[in-house]
Amino acid sequence: MRLTILRHAPSLAGGRMAGRRDVAADCSDLAGLARQAARIGGGGRIIASPALRCRQTAAALGLIPDRLEPALWEQDLGAWEDLAAEALPDLGPLSMSALARHRPEGGESFDDMAARVIPVLQALERDSVLIAHAGTVRAALSMVVGPAALSFAVAPLSLTVLRRAGEVWAVETVNLRAGD
Prior knowledge:
InterPro entries: His_Pase_superF_clade-1 (IPR013078), His_PPase_superfam (IPR029033). It contains five helices and six strands; from the N terminus they run E-H-E-H-E-H-H-E-H-E-E. It is α/β, with parallel strands linked by helices. The protein has one domain: Rossmann fold, CATH 3.40.50.1240. Strands 3-2-4-1-5-6 form a six-stranded mixed sheet. Helix 2 links the parallel strand 2 and strand 3. The chain is globular and about 45 Å long. The chain starts with a strand and ends with a strand.
């Protein structure tokens, strides 16, 4: 089974954290959208996060989701929502495992988010395309590399592809950007 995950087009969050905030996407990169749509091709079942930015990206790609899956929402950043990146607290040196467990006040940790995303991915029975978030991509990667998935760059409008044979997942492609 092939799992293709497309991170939504750039969010219009004004450079602020937009985990669970429902912000729009900038779908003006028509060439990039066309390139990624061609790469996706007939990739199978289409599943999207219900976030506006994901639904807009799907529409811009000419894709109609078979379902909107609430479990694919981005990580809830709690007190960090709507903060500029430079305003985030300095957590000091943390191991990847400790970072994955860290929970912003009122939010969820990466591990919490992965615990709701991974069962959806494991339940897929045929080739599927997800239109989702960077956190969703990293949760999928964590099935192969564990908390080290937090170290992967996931650009807006990039593709990540995993394959499953039986219960074993393998990474085929990570962060294939629209301009690549």
